[in-house]
Design brief:
α1 (12-23) runs parallel beside α2 (39-49) and α7 (201-209) packs across α11. The chain has 11 helices and 13 strands. The chain is globular. The strands form 4 sheets. The protein has a 7-stranded parallel β-sheet with strand order 3-2-1-4-5-6-11, with helices on both faces. It has a two-stranded parallel sheet with strand order 7-10. It starts with a strand and ends in a 6-residue tail after the last helix. β2 (27-32), α2 and β3 form a beta-alpha-beta unit. It is an alpha/beta fold and 338 residues long. Bound molecules: nicotinamide-adenine-dinucleotide and uridine-5'-diphosphate-4-deoxy-4-fluoro-alpha-D-galactose. The site of nicotinamide-adenine-dinucleotide has 27 residues, from α1, α5, β5 and β7.
Amino acid sequence: MATVFLAGGAGYIGSHTAVALLDAGYDVVVADNYSNSSPEAIRRVERITGKTVQLYEADIRDSARISEIFQENRIDAVIHFAGLKAVGESVQKPLMYYRNNIDTTLTLLETMAKFNVNKVIFSSSATVYGSENPIPYIETMQRGVCSNPYGWTKAMMEQIFEDAAKANPELSVVLLRYFNPIGAHPSGLIGEDPTGIPNNLMPYITQVAVGKRDHLTVFGNDYPTPDGTCRRDYIHVMDLANGHVKATDYVLAHKGVEIVNLGTGTPYSVTEIVETFQRVNGVAVPYEFGPRRFGDIPEFYANADKALALFGWRTEKSLEDMCRDSWNWQKQNPNGYR
Ligand code: NAD
Ligand code: UFG
């Protein structure tokens, strides 16, 4: 079976994808600098799957180090998860975001060329559609105007992959545009482990539920949506992980560039998420309405047809599963991996 190199693979999406790839019979090599993760996540991946992961502490920008890893392992395909992802922080520290996210991409592509590895999957984001495109977002739309440096790094990296593929007809690239990943592996052994105050909705909810924060503030209830709160396309991280397995099967067998949305196609509002979380878990999440958060758009969700047509993939988990599994992880690991 083929070997897949996961750059940034100890993180939230990478660790779940490692489980799905190992379960599907792939061998997995992970490199991570643990800037937003812990090697413990990979030890738990090994516990869940009963398989071994080749794990390296490494900065993906470090060419010499990444070359060593490619030398020691016969890599067939690369999945590039390594990146900084906090929208607000990217506004405060744009150069750090451009430096890290663009450099990791360049180093990976250069190292791949050096070792004649031509298969790559990239963690892009729905954020590249910008705010002008109509919803639902479909892959044939032009990339839009991003509202923050994080989003721009994703748009720029997509462009870099497209240009690299234009110049090298052997290259096979899948740009996966994730919508809003939440949930955790059903075992509760791995999950999302943000440092500091969570930026994203679900980790904030679980930290309120477990008593670490006293209430959730819902950012705005005067949007032009059915209940006035923003709507997003939340996707269970295990569905997302299985999408990566399908993308790996695909990328190994094809050449050229494909852009693929990974979402459910169904939006839920902030209020629906909190209410569902409380109902399925029988736990209270006090919340109050506050002002809008700068940069939020009222609603976006995926047209998910292409993933089905190209990969034969569609999501299987419900919003209830997402809420249950998020809570299962948080209550078993109130302090994350620490
Ligand atoms: P994460 O922070 O949990 O994972 C990213 C991993 O990359 C972390 O383990 C971090 O330590 C590592 N990393 C960062 N810079 C590195 C470097 N220079 N060298 C080595 N390792 C490095 O985030 P995630 O939620 O798992 O996201 C994975 C990818 O998916 C990211 O690129 C992110 O931008 C993208 N994405 C995430 C979401 C989301 O909502 N979670 C949505 C769209 C896209
Ligand atoms: N929200 C709250 N209270 C909170 C946190 C979030 O009401 O404490 C709301 C937000 O206002 C938004 C919704 O919950 O309406 C979802 O917010 P998230 O921060 O969880 O997710 P976003 O849709 O804002 O952002 C996500 C990723 C970004 C990515 C973007 C577009 O975190 O990386 O989707 O793909 F850029």
